[in-house]
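Dear V.,

Thank you for sending over the compound details. I've combined the ligand you provided, flavin mononucleotide, with the protein sequence from our construct and run the structure prediction for the complex. I'm sharing the raw inputs here so there's no ambiguity about protonation or stereochemistry in the SMILES, which I know was a concern on your side last time.
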Amino acid sequence: MSKKILVVSGHTDLKNNSFANKIILDRLNEIMPEAEYLYLDSEYHDFKFDVEKEQNRLRAADVIVMQFPFFWYGVPSIMHKWQEDVFVHGFSHGSKGKALVGKKLLISFTSGAPEEMYQKGGIQGYPVEDFLIPLKQFAAACGMEWSGFIYSGGLSYASRHDDEKLKQMKAKALEHAERVLEKIRSL
Ligand SMILES: Cc1cc2nc3c(=O)[nH]c(=O)nc-3n(C[C@H](O)[C@H](O)[C@H](O)COP(=O)(O)O)c2cc1C
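Below is the predicted structure of the protein with flavin mononucleotide bound, written out as structure tokens.
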């Protein structure tokens, strides 16, 4: 793959409190070792970003993948803070902020609620894609190309004690990683 891929993990505690995202990221590392991986929780547990370093990482990428668990219908706190601090006026937007123009943004995320709950009139009220509007406009405001999203539901932390459910969740997370790779290849 000649495109430069940057995968940013927004899980707040990947090592100690993740099942699905950890499997997805470990698998992506195996099948896409040439990509660069940024684990926000391990590099910036204090939420204090090296802004210049992270802006340079973004500059070098052709495809930016945001990998995260859905936390209260959006990105987790650490990923939001990364957006707030790194994507600043004059870098990502504004009349002189053109650093990200033309880069592709791919969203890859998991949710605890199963897919079928995300529909109009369903328990989660709206189709899952409706919750991505802020990210879509984030891409647009930064001149990035929206490359869509890869999503898997039903990966609940409440099922972590159930061996059968864990098996199913593992298979689903592995399949999710394959879909991410397939999507990246198509970009
Ligand atoms: C603080 C918090 C907020 C969450 N908010 C949502 C939510 O809004 N919608 C949903 O479907 N699942 C929600 N979940 C469930 C997570 O999305 C789910 O556990 C996660 O995607 C599984 O990935 P992991 O095993 O890598 O942690 C939430 C979980 C936590 C801990």
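A first observation: The pocket of flavin mononucleotide is lined by residues 11, 18-22, 69-73, 110-113, 155-157 (CB under 6 Å).

Warm regards,
I. M.
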